[in-house]
Amino acid sequence: MTDDVTISGVGAWIALIVSLLVLVALFAIAIAALIVVPRNRRPPSALAWLLLIYILPFIGFLLFLMLGSRRLPKRRRDQQDEINTYILETTDGMDRVSKDSPWPPWLEPIVELNRNLGAMPLVGGNTAKLYTDYSGSIAAMTAAVRLAERSVHVEFYIMSVDDETEIFFEALADAAARGVTVRVLYDHVASLRVPGYRRLLKRLDSMGAEHRAMLPIRPWRGQWQRPDLRNHRKFLIVDGSIAFTGSQNLIARHYHRRTRRDGSQLVWEELMVRFAGPIVAGIEALFATDWYSETGELLLRETVIPPEIDPGQGLDAQVVPSGPAFEGENNLRLFNSLVYAAQEQIQICSPYFVPDESMLYAITTAAQSGLDVQLFVSEIGDQTLVFHAQRSYYEELLRAGVRIWLYRSPTVLHAKHFTVDDEVAIIGSSNMDMRSFSLNLEVSVMVRGESIIRELREIEQSYRDNSTELLLDDWLRRPAHMRIFDDLARVTAAVQ
Question: Of 212, 345, 402, 464, whose CB neighbour count within 10 A is largest?
Answer without folding.
Answer: 402
